[in-house]
């Protein structure tokens, strides 16, 4: 008892995380989070654009995982729940180009994480 409610809550949480990632890609002040002052101006813009693109791709994948969980909860069928693999298969069903864009976006997210590890602005209090 209560399992379906828990799956609905998980779906809402994962979908919310995906939406938050999309918001972060749009509104985050990445220039304040990363210490990129030593980079040339053109490179700085590319790093920020690449980071936003990667965060948005991650948000799309999270959002689709939330949709898959919601579908499993509404149909009371745990076989419909899925993770990253199933969400990418869902995108692949839309065609080659959407999958390629999201795949490149996930690579961009990996590069963002490397840049974040290297250039993260850490405030000491």
The level of helicity is over 70%
Q: In DSSP terms, counting alpha (H) and pi (I) runs of 4 or more, how many helices?
A: 5
Task: Round the mean pLDDT to the nearest integer and report it.
Answer: 86
What gross morphology would you assign?
elongated
* Class of secondary structure makeup: mainly alpha
The proportion of residues in beta strands is: under 5%
Pattern of helices and strands:
HHHHH
For the largest beta-sheet, the strand count, sense and barrel status come to:
none
Quick one: how many beta strands?
0
Low-confidence stretches: none
Q: Give the N-to-C terminal Cα separation.
A: 47 Å
From the alpha carbons, calculate the radius of gyration and give it in angstroms.
17 Å
Describe, in short, the structure shown:
This protein has helices at 3-27, 30-33, 41-75, 84-92, 96-119. By secondary structure, it is mainly α.
What does this 3D model show about the protein?
The chain has helices spanning 3-27, 30-33, 41-75, 84-92, 96-119. With 125 residues, the protein is mainly alpha-helical. It is elongated, with a radius of gyration of 17 Å. The relative contact order is 0.17. The model has no long low-confidence stretch (mean pLDDT 86).
């Amino acid at each position: 008892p209560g399992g379906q409610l828990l799956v609905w809550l998980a779906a809402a949480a994962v979908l919310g995380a995906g939406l938050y990632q999309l918001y972060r890609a749009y509104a985050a002040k990445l220039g304040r989070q990363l210490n990129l002052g030593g980079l040339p101006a053109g490179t700085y813009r590319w790093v920020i654009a690449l980071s936003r693109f990667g965060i948005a791709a991650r948000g799309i994948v999270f959002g689709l995982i939330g949709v898959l969980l919601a579908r499993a909860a509404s149909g009371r069928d745990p076989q419909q729940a899925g993770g990253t693999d199933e969400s990418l298969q869902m995108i692949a069903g839309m065609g080659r180009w959407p999958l390629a864009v999201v795949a490149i976006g996930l690579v961009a997210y990996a590069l963002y994480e490397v840049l974040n590890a290297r250039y993260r602005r850490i405030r000491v209090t």
